[in-house]
Automatic annotation (TrEMBL), chain B:
GO terms for molecular function: succinate dehydrogenase (quinone) activity. Residues 161-183 form the 4Fe-4S ferredoxin-type domain. PANTHER family: SUCCINATE DEHYDROGENASE [UBIQUINONE] IRON-SULFUR SUBUNIT, MITOCHONDRIAL, SUCCINATE DEHYDROGENASE IRON-SULFUR PROTEIN. Belongs to the succinate dehydrogenase/fumarate reductase iron-sulfur protein family. Its cofactor is [4Fe-4S] cluster; [3Fe-4S] cluster; [2Fe-2S] cluster. Keywords: 2Fe-2S, 3Fe-4S, 4Fe-4S, Iron, Iron-sulfur, Metal-binding, Oxidoreductase, Tricarboxylic acid cycle. This is Fumarate reductase iron-sulfur subunit. The keyword Electron transport does not apply.
Length: 160, 259
């Protein structure tokens, strides 16, 4: 530290009374998560490749599934007014619609989760923030997928 | 041989350049200054100068440094768009100061000049390029062959094989692309466009035999799959390299394993 009389007032640099000097420079602002010689650690896996491919393929399949779903539910044959317990029960009596909805649930959930994982990787800077956001995301995903799958397979039209 | 006689009619006929048709205009250069030895804060400082609009931003910076304020700090070496040391953010876009003409960037308004983003600013327009060069080194940007003996003749290659990676040989490592990439701004662990471009240059070179190895490096979690195809890199490249296309070709090579 220098021995000169530096005032730590908030007025800012006045001539001869700057907070910083050649021997005492201000800290530089480093960008988040800088690359060093030791990082990133190599993982040697194909996960990112698979995730990237999955996004494209599931996206294409989802276009068909979701637009078909919306057409049936909201447009064709009376539109949204026809939807009720009986309508859902009638559809899920057929294995075709069970598979359709199951596929839509899994693909949409994994597609969305992977998208959010990407967003977290891109924008969360601190390791702890990343860990917690991803933990929350994966918990919510597993819960929704399991609950949805359970409902599709154990749906009982005679429930009361 | 007769010595040719210079026709002086043109020079004599043109009128003396008067005050009214002076090529000089007044421009305001708004430069983001940062000097850790004075203040922890970066500030925008305006400089007014008379300059020919056909001159470059680098000439304006020189005028400031030489005539107005000698403390202005920036990098430049060749000043002709080859060495890649004067990449900076001019009017919000990454360009080389030595290839940007004043007349092309609307001199009516103040011209903003700041350091490239995503790297530590050391002083004024000078950034710490080390993380950028580390990513470059990490893709092994040199010829690797399996043969152990020194070759006794040139490594020949067809014109088509040479054309395959011609675009990516143009890179001058100015960091304009990498520091325009929003993924790199928030996560410096990403290799960044420049490193991928230089990997592409060797992956698709028929004489090189370590393509597989480089692809494996870029297949990792901070490699090509983090590219969001925002095309910022392609827009920023002062050499006109189709950076996003090169990245896409590396992605395709990874999926098909053909390169």
């Amino acid at each position: 530290m220098s021995t000169t009389d530096t005032t730590a007032s908030g007025i800012g640099p006045v001539e001869g009374a700057s907070l910083y000097s050649v021997d005492n420079p201000a800290p530089v602002i480093e960008p988040p998560r800088q690359r060093t010689k030791k990082t990133p650690k190599s993982t040697r896996g194909n996960f990112e490749l698979a995730a990237w491919l999955f996004m494209r393929l599931s996206g294409v399949v989802l276009v068909v599934l979701v637009i078909g779903h919306l057409l049936i539910q909201l447009v064709l044959d009376g539109g949204v007014s026809k939807i009720g317990f009986a309508f859902v029960a009638g559809r899920w009596a057929s294995p075709f619609w069970q598979v359709w909805d199951l596929l839509m649930l899994w693909l949409a959930m994994l597609h969305g989760t992977n998208g959010l994982r990407t967003v977290i990787n891109d924008y969360a800077e601190r390791p702890n923030t990343r860990l917690w956001l991803k933990g929350l995301l994966y918990t919510a995903t597993v819960f929704t997928i399991l609950l949805g799958t359970l409902v599709i397979f154990t749906f009982d039209p005679n429930i009361r | 041989m007769a010595t040719p006689v210079l026709d002086k009619a043109d020079a004599a006929g043109s009128p003396e350049p008067g005050f009214a048709d002076s090529p000089y205009i007044t421009v305001t250069m708004r430069i983001r200054r940062f000097n850790p030895e004075v203040s922890a804060e970066a500030v925008w400082e305006d400089f007014q100068l008379e300059i020919d609009p056909k001159e470059r931003v680098l000439d304006a910076l020189h005028k400031i440094k030489w005539d107005l304020d000698g403390t202005l700090t920036f990098r430049r070496s060749c000043a002709h768009g080859i060495c890649g040391s004067d990449a900076m953010r001019i009017n919000g876009k990454n360009r080389l100061a030595c290839k940007t003409l004043i007349k092309d960037i609307n001199p009516e308004k103040p011209i903003t000049v700041e350091a490239i983003k995503g790297l530590t600013v050391l002083k004024d327009l000078v950034v710490d390029m080390e993380p950028f060069f580390q990513a470059y080194r990490d893709v092994m940007p040199f010829l690797i062959t399996k043969e152990t003996n020194e070759p006794t003749r040139e490594r020949l290659q067809t014109a088509e094989d040479r054309a395959r990676f011609d675009d990516t040989t143009k890179c001058i490592l100015c960091a304009a692309c990498t520091s325009s990439c929003p993924v790199f701004w928030n996560d410096g662990q990403y290799f960044g466009p420049a490193a991928i471009v230089n990997a592409h240059r060797f992956i698709f070179d028929s004489r090189d035999e370590a393509g597989e190895q480089r692809l494996e490096i870029l297949n990792d979690k901070d490699g090509v799959w983090r590219c969001r195809t925002t095309f910022n890199c392609t827009d920023a490249c002062p050499r006109g390299i189709e950076v996003t296309k090169a990245i896409a070709e590396v992605k395709r090579a990874l999926i098909t394993r053909r390169f």
